Structures are given as structure tokens and as C-alpha cells.
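User: Design a sequence. Structure:
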């Protein structure tokens, strides 16, 4: 789950928890909203923790290798 998905879950959960005024028997919409916000917040934290371990687009020359081996081929005469 990425950062964008986590933020969408937080937004949907906040809408269900704070903006919806519905009383249903056997199904609590507000509890579903809280659960979605908690799952979204956990997703944001995990995304930020693992963000630095992702190679990303800046893994070219001059950046940290991140455990990768560089193979150099030489032409022999």
C-alpha cells in the first residue's frame, strides 16, 4: 500500500466517522471510519519507513549504491 492509498483511506475514514449521520442496526459506520483511519495512518508510517530502502529514480552514478554490485566489462586486445 502506497502513500497515496493510505491518504485516501484516511480521508474516507474521516468522512465516515465525522460527516455521516446514520444509525444502522448491527453495523456502525463510525467504527468503520475509525478502522479505515487507523489502517491509513499505519500505511503512511510504513510507507515513510520503507521509503529510504526503495531504490527510486535517483539510483544512478554518484548516489548510494544500496548493496548493489557494479560490473565493469573491459575489452581485451
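Assistant: Done.
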Amino acid at each position: 500500500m502506497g502513500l497515496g492509498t493510505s491518504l485516501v483511506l484516511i480521508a474516507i475514514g474521516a468522512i465516515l466517522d465525522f460527516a455521516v449521520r446514520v444509525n444502522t442496526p448491527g453495523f456502525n459506520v463510525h467504527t468503520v471510519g475509525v478502522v479505515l483511519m487507523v489502517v491509513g495512518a499505519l500505511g503512511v508510517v510504513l510507507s515513510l519507513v520503507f521509503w529510504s530502502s526503495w531504490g527510486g529514480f535517483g539510483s544512478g552514478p554518484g548516489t548510494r549504491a544500496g548493496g548493489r554490485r557494479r560490473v565493469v566489462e573491459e575489452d581485451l586486445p
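The helical segments are 3-19, 29-50. Residues 29-50 form the longest helix (22 residues).
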